[in-house]
User: Fold these one by one.
Assistant:
Number 1:
Amino acid sequence: MTDVLLAVGTRKGLFIGHRRRGAWRLSGPHFPAQAVYSLAIDTRGARPRLLAGADSAHWGPSVFHSDDLGDTWQEPARPAVKYPKDTGTSLERVWQLHPAGPAAPEVVYAGTEPGGLFRSEDRGETFELVRALWEHPSRERWVPGGGGLAVHTVVTDPRDAARVTVAVSAAGVFRTRDGGAGWEPSNSGVKAVFLPDQHPEFGQCVHKIAPDPVDHDRLYLQNHWGVYRSDDAGATWTDVGGGLPSDFGFAVAAHPRRGDVAYLFPITADIDRVPAGHRCRVFRTSDAGASWEPLSAGLPEEDHYGTVLRDALSVDDADPAGVYFGNRCGELYASADDGDSWRQLASHLPDVLCVRAAAVA
């Protein structure tokens, strides 16, 4: 069985899991008492690099990196992510850390609150603000969602490093095709059910986007009400939420190799925000959203209230693929067979905020 590195960010530190010869070992917390909202495992170099966006109540947010699978961590002497003085703002949180594709092996993106995108060209040690998105003409009309105003998702096209898609809460989807020099809203077909005009150019509350591994023009989107698919790289979106117990949720992840396969964790909303039907179930599509099947073998059968946040559902790149999720009850679950069966790796962790996994040598 493939060895896997698992990183779990919680409200009170980072936990590192290693699967070797089929056995799991979990250690931590790293960054005790710090909330870890963003993680990345960058496997593009000779050695994997881990990136963590940790948030100290005393020192503020920072980006750390590790080149020894999480045994030790380095923090830049100067803040890695910092808003220029002329913006009149300061960093509140790093919500997303995303290594770009193989066409840009040193590039890492950071999505931040208040609604900024930063780019690094040294694998996440220093970052610069992407000015064109920060200064987009629509920005003054962006409205914070329930979790704030944040660039929380970054998707890069493996065919072309200049093609980047981001999701902003609650401004919607924006795309660039020229490396960040120009950006356009890309929300056609996505509803904003909470607005008088439910189909605005921007203003949707997108919760997460995941790219298909085979059809690089195909994206899956979990919205604040609504599950969507795009077959044209985000230019237009089609509702594929039929057959789900709820089309509200926070997380979506795509299989690392199999086309048309994606995973969701439906939530009852807007008042409850607990698992749909009080059941702990991941839903999988194998036909690009035409149908959905519940996956629950090995998961709790009794009433369940553990909500899965937008970055707390993840896949690795092993074969078969591992699927992982953590919830706000501090439970961590793993599947080693594409989601067909599950086991609990941990319980009583702090509130799980994000999960990342990758096969490692």
Number 2:
Amino acid sequence: MELIIKPLYSLEELLDMQRLEQDVWGDDFTPIHQTITVAKNGGIILGAYDKDKLIGFLYSFPGFKNDSVFLCSHLVGIDIAYRGQGIGEQLKRKQKELALDKGFKLITWTFDPLESANANLNIRKLKGVCRTYIEDCYGKLDGKLNSGLPTDRFLVEWHLDSDHVRNEDGYNHRDAASVFIVSMNEAGLPYIKNVNEEVMKQLESFDTLSITVPTQFQAMKKADFSLAKEWRTQTREVFQTLFSQGFIVVDVERKQGAITQQYILIKQTEVNIELV
């Protein structure tokens, strides 16, 4: 594969992007009049090509909050035949480079906290952080990946020029207290046996926590939808509680082939970044 990543500007390029977006999400797609306006007015839209074939894209535009200007990254889509090859990460790295050139210090985006591959990229590899849980962020969506459950999302903050992003050492996972006690059912699917009430009742005593999530959430939805719904409900409640108590997601612990992985949270005062 001869991977080329470049900005998309022309109508033809953005029509190709729209077709790929439909392939990835089904009936959901962004109107051309929106993407072409963003491309010509300060947004960053990137395409990943294998020679002349568009195989991935990234769509982002400027956002504002109070006196802060940041880049809002809305979509990343990869052709199904090219997934698992790090193309999404390369798109994000190029986005970071161009964003810094334009003067942006922060990029934000959302993702489903139960989508483990996205968590691994966004939190562990890129070193985004999260302290905001948005319940049913987009309302009902009927695309391939979102149908059937509330569209709960993490809001990721990627502080491009922060010590946190530059830090290669990460955090000490061994000291993390587990919030969930997880077991396996007869079908070999992970379920939350119970919440560790000892931890939840004494949050002020802990500096580092871990929250377990499944690594194959889409497969779980197909195999046992009610179990997937329980994961959504129980993780929602716990994340909202921990964020309200000053904890922030800073890392992911992921082992090859495991059926679960862990979010690592620490007290917000211990994160060496300037939050906005």
Number 3:
Amino acid sequence: MVDLLGERDAYLRMVEDAFPQARIVARGNELDIAGPEDIATTARTVFDELLILIQEGEPLDADRVARVIDLVKSDVPAPSGIFTDSIKVGRGKQVRPKTHGQKVYVDLVRENTMVFGIGPAGTGKTYLAMACAVEALVSGSVRRIILTRPAVEAGERLGFLPGDLTAKVDPYLRPLYDALYEMLGPEETQRLMERGTIEIAPLAYMRGRTLNDAFIVLDEAQNTSPEQMKMFLTRLGFNSKMVITGDVTQVDLGDGKSSGLRAVQRILRNVDGVGFMELTGKDVVRHRIVAAIVEAYRKYEDRRKAELDAKR
């Protein structure tokens, strides 16, 4: 009961704030929930789901309680199942989805040969793809991981970079390194890269290759041209899996160039073995302000589109 209600009944107060029409009283090891039947039933479902997490050994915190409340209110079935699902990335480490959309995304990656994860910043589309890749490597499902992204700068031109190929592309691929370091540790990541088990390369070096027994992740795919996207997708070999991630609202190609990620949504939507997951602001797991920023930009773009349509 202490774990369920939180220190000084903090989690109990969160549920009360979420359901102001319900009256919740804790007596010993029992909870008395009164109020309109539908509200009381929903509040009880929240506590049932939180109790399942505790019984599964998952500690509660304010963020997790808030997410369970939101999921129950949204009629998402079995919210606790989202938080008890895990992606094993080795040495006892696990990565878990935090939203319903993220859980669906992970399931799609596991069930399909090729998956497109499309959504705004902070939705975990790249991090979860990387976690699934590490899980596949650790379990022996694949023999190597290949991570790539287009070398396109976000609005700035840095000019020529010094050093060999690795040094030149390193700034573009740094987010992928960061995720690997967090999951595997710097030493293990470096060892696997030296052996060629993990390869990080710019998209331009994919042409002409056939990628067998590999888990391939293409990040920032919104910055590929349609021709680059076709080239990359046709690298898929036997016993391999591809995950392509990107945000179609952040295309940095410039000069009115079309995005390969936008085009592929129309071209491959009905192909068997290809899955599409569109994550939204509800799936943002960074600071709460990030979710608010994503939603504000979405509304702004919708208004602009409506104004342009009205002028035509």
